[in-house]
Amino acid sequence: MSIALALLAAAPTEIVVTGTGLPDTPAAPAYDRVVLDREVLDRAASGRIEDALANVAGFQQFRRSDSRSSNPSAQGVTLRALGGNATSRALVTLDGVPLADPFFGYVPLSATDPAQLARAVVTRGGGSGAFGAGAVAGTIALESAGAATLGPVGGQALVDDRGETALAGYLAPRLGHGYAVLAGRWDRGQGFWTSPPDQRVPASVRARFDSWSASARMAAPLGDAAELQARVGAFGDARTLRFAGADTTSSGSDASVRLIGRGAFGFELLGYVQTRDFSNVVISSSSFRKTLDQQGTPSTGLGGKLELRPPVGGAHVLRIGADWRRATGMTQEAAYSTVTGLVTARRRAGGRNDDVGLYVEDDWTHGDLTLTGGARADRWVVADGFYREVAASGTVTGDIRYAARAGWTGSLRGGARLRLSPALSLRGAAYSGLRLPTLNELYRPFVVFPVTTQANAALANERLRGAELGAEIAPVPGVSLALTAFDNRLGGAIANVTLAPGLRQRRNVDAIRARGIEASAGLRRGAVALDGSLAWTDARVEATGASAALDGMRPAQTPTWATSLTGSVAPCGGCSAALTLRHVGAQFEDDLETDVLPAATTLDAIVALPVARHWSLLLRGENLTGARVVTRNQGGSIDLGAPRTLWLGVKLRG
Could you list the residue range(s) of the whole structural domain that residue 649 is in? Predict the structure, then answer.
């Protein structure tokens, strides 16, 4: 803090408190980057952040289920078909703070309200730089909206045709030259049937959900050229999946403080703490008895960052920084006999991961040409790993302490953007990146009955190398086109590898190679807008040795095609309507390409009509055509995504 305060006097200027981080650097557009503004984020028919981000083709979770009907631990986020397991390979941040669960690596999507965001910046590829560890598939930077954007008070209340409710609200008072935002959200309902009618049994139930989140955020000036930002938040989520008793909960709390300097000598100083917990009961699909009770998975994430932008000349923007992250956690669970219903074993497993990153990056603008280059060095540590199993009799049947590992890994990235004319710009980039295996991948076995997946404490880090070329075209005012061709190789990719029927293990395969095309288009004509996004990806596993059976196969849960098209109109102040058509191609459930999830096309709509001062009537429709969206297929036993759902409600903005 003393360093930051000393820098306040470097160039005192009058500032406006925004609550945001440091501005984008000039070379940010050299990478494949999509910015979703508040209007786009707020028109998801489900009101959920994962559906808003799906406007960027190539964005995916491990499964197609949304955060009402999926197991939270499967909410890993990735880009560019670099998936294959449930851990996030894209780095998701909120106001600079990584959101992924410290133990599992999933993102708590139900705790993020898109109505509270100003924008989301999605960068596909480009794995190094600030907070670069973990960003092997790209980054998704979420930015909270401030009081000027939100207004002093707002909220919405909706009910759907199944009687489910969604309530959200906020207060955003001005405090001197700063502001505060107090926000909350509560979603609950009986849920929909995930099992098709012909596969339901007496134990089958709807996917019931009950989730809440609350946060308090403030931003205030500090000196003449800086602002202090602070945030605290908490969330809770309870879901029931497929069978009675298959209950899952997740919860957490967060606190962060950030100091931003906007003078000639820019800087950012950030510190944060996260606590998380997770529980899960697994029900046998044959006996319908409890087979596993994951009673708790407490974990803690700690981290911080310091970035300096010293004045080195008008043509250059230099970034020098360091960041640190620590993840600790363990799982506590009991295994049950499906015959007697009694405990057969109790298990505990966990450990600690650390990463310290040092980075430097420089952007140089020379006329219509912008060049960028950066280097990063990560000191990583995997330590304190253990696995302990005790039989019901009290006999210790397993007690393993894993040796600590550590090392240094370097990453590079560079790019260029050339503005040939007002209508055409070309860009290119190459990059590398790093992801440590999560504590879950290293130490915790799990069961999605009848398949058991073993952990693997010997997992190595994943390493990305990639390159891309792109063009941005604006042939006439109001029309924009962007096209990117990319080639990414994720070396040492961690996959769930089938060893025998009903048995898998997490292993490093040689690589996942993803090559493809990403395209986007936009049209603006007065009150009418049309936005489209498309991704075609040829993703293949490269595998030798014990995993050679996977060589040439497509990674699990990764479609070849994904596209989204949204048409919207805003004919008057406060009135708006949008229609979104989304298609996801066929994908395989498993690594051996045994079970297929068919392609799915859905149609969503949202309409807002002003009915009084500051009040609007909201109409929303999810999956209006009632398309059958298969989210899981295990030997013909399937789960389905959200059916046709109609919402009615009101919205306040004052």
Answer: 2-653
